[in-house]
Amino acid sequence: MIRFWSVGLLYILAAAAVMAADSPVPGDHEFALTVGAIKRSYLVHVPPQAAAGKALPLILNLHGGGGNAANQKSYSRMDESADRDGYIAVYPNGTGGIGGRLLTWNAGTCCGAAAANQVDDVGFVVAMLDDLAQRMQYDRARVYATGLSNGSMMAYRLAAEAPEIIAAVAGVAGAMTLPRFAPKLPVPVMHIHSVDDRRALYDGGLGPAFPLTNTRVFHQPVDSMIEKWVAHNGCPAQVQVTGTVSGKPGSADAAHTATRYQYGPCRAGTEVVFWKLTGAGHVWPGGRQNYLPLLLGSGTTVIDANAEMWRFFSRFRRGTKSP
Fold this sequence. Notes:
alpha/beta, 10-stranded mixed beta sheet, two-stranded antiparallel sheet, 9 helices
C-alpha cells in the first residue's frame, strides 16, 4: 500500500514537472533555432498573467528594415501593452546586416539582402512558432501579426501566404509588396499609415534612399492594398467612418489627426479597418517619441497603435470571430 502511494506520488510529481515546463515563465526570454541552414533568433516577452497557467494569445511584432528585434521591442513599447492586456509578445530577427543590426525581411519585392537572397521568412516564422510551442504553451488559435515598415510588409506576407496560422494582421507604415496576392482564407486586417509618411509613401512610388546607401524601395499605394483586402475578404464596398481623433491641444502633435475607416461585415466574420493619420511621419503611433526625427519624421500619440490593434485582434481567433 505504501509502495502504491509512493509510485502514485511520483507520477503526480512528474506530471506537475511537465506542466511547469509547458507554462511560460513571466519575463523576457531569447531563443535561437536553425532554419534552412541559417541560424535565426527571436525575443519573447511573457506577461504576468501567464502565471495562472492559461494559454495566452500571441502577437508577432516584426521590426522595420535596418532594425532588429531588440530595437522594435524598445521602440514600439509593446511589452507594456502585453502586461496590461495579457498576451505574449514575440519579436523575431530578420537576416543580413552586420553584428545583428541592419536586418531585413523578404516581404516580396522588399527589402534588402533578405529579398535579394530570397530568404524564406514565412518558413522561418512557421518554424519559430513550432519551436516556441515546444518551449511554452500559447493559444495557437490566437496568433496575430504586426510590424513596422518592412516588418509591416512581412506581416502582410504572413497573412497572405500562411492564413492558417494568422488570426488577424495589423500593419504600421508599410504597405504590402507581394507580386502575387492569392490568400487561401479571409483574414481580418487593420492598417495604420500617415499620409505625411516621407519614407513609406502613402500614394506609392520610389521612396528616398536608406541612409548611407543608394538603396531605394518602390512602395505600393496604401489605398490599393486596402482595396485588395476588401475585395478578397468579400467586404461591402461602402466604407464607414467610425471615429476621428485630433491631437491634444498644446501638445507636440496638436495638429495631427487620425480617422478610422471600417469595411464590414465581411466574409467569415472578418473586417478591414484603416487608421489614416495626418501630421505623423514614418512612425509607430504611441511608441517611443522623438526617435530619429530627421530620418523618420514626427512621432505621434494621436492614437496608441498597441491599444488599437489589441482592441481589434482580441475580437478574432483563427476561423471564428470572438464574442
